[in-house]
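We were asked to recover a plausible sequence for a given structure. The inputs and outputs are reproduced exactly as logged, with field labels preserved.

PROBLEM: sequence recovery
POSITIONS: 105
GIVEN STRUCTURE:
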């Protein structure tokens, strides 16, 4: 029986959907540590914000800082569920869009 395409192996393994890294724990020369930590109580590392390596490479330093701070500012593991935040926020527009007001003749 053939293995199904996708699944957790594809998601967390290497490839376009996989290879997750912790953007809150940078290494030297722009590299990132692998996602996760051994235990929350015994770890020196703060709560991880994980994204695929391809996404991490495309993010600017300010986007990374924003995503990590938003993730860590929320209460983690409420009700036994993981806390998720958007990785990249879209800019809010300032109210109404300008319209061409045409006079009716």
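RECOVERED SEQUENCE:
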């Amino acid at each position: 029986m053939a293995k199904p395409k996708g699944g957790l192996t594809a998601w967390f393994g290497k490839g376009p959907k996989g290879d997750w890294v912790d953007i809150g724990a940078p290494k030297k020369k722009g590299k990132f540590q692998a996602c996760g930590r051994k235990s929350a109580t015994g770890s020196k590392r703060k709560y991880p914000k994980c994204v695929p390596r391809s996404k991490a490479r495309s993010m600017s330093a300010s986007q990374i800082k924003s995503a990590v701070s938003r993730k860590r500012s929320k209460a983690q593991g409420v009700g036994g569920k993981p806390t998720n935040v958007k990785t990249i926020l879209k800019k809010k527009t300032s109210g109404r869009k300008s319209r061409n007001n045409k006079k009716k003749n």
